[in-house]
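Q: What does the assembled structure look like for these inputs?
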Amino acid sequence: MPYPFSKTALVPNLTLPKDAPLEKLKLGKGLMPFLQKNLYSAGKAELMHDLFSRQSPKQLRVGSIVTVLNDQAPNTFTGVLIAIRRRGPDSSITLRNILQRTGIEMQFFPNAPGVKEVKVIRPPPKGRMRRAKLYYLRDSPDKMSMLAGGKNK
Amino acid sequence: MIGLKSTLNVIDNSGALIVECVNVLKNKVNNGWGSVGDEIVVVVQKARPVSAATQASVNAVKVRRGDVRRAVIVRTRKAVRRPDGSYVRFDDNAAILLNNKREMLGTRIGGMVSGDLRLKGWGKIVSLAPRVV
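A:
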């Protein structure tokens, strides 16, 4: 069986690239950079590169308004992008929104099979924010509403 | 992560406003933590004033300050992991009061609740809530 320690474990169908240096990898040489490049879900490598690579013109920028479409509930979540965590296949984004007078933050991992689409609704004001993480928005609802509603034109 | 002495907002119409956790029922010890969907024992710290009319009425179950009740946690400030790997975090801790038979004391819910309640078997609360995330 593919996973020798459990009969019921679900093992994803990962296909190795043809030029993978298997002998060196089995010794652990160059294993982590190899995984960072190849551990993406089917068809997600290009999406992850577009969203997270700093050279990509479509890269996600903190302070933009983003919608994430999921397979399961909540099927859509819209919010201000307050944090981008770049870890290769494990990269994630945190969106903050205020619904029913309560703030709610959700952290999504676009490499997960449940995440269908990540859409940028509005870029950040003036193209960029002056911080990498916008945790100060948790304490100032007026700055949140400025980001959410102010820059309409 | 709700434990002893944690305060929670009450978001139903039972009359309580702020409750303080005294025990997390899924743990055998006092010093455990509760999360969304866990039943806890609470003491009512702040309640809406009960007018004389509602005192006389039989229907209303209004709680008073100092009451010891059970509650279920519906929102936490600590991030809760979903099975698909995403995390949800709210800006406050909130609970809904229950009676000893796991039924709601109030009749309406006035705020958002976490979708993790469905997984833990609180479908009635999820269906009553105005917004579930």
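Chain B has a mean pLDDT of 91.
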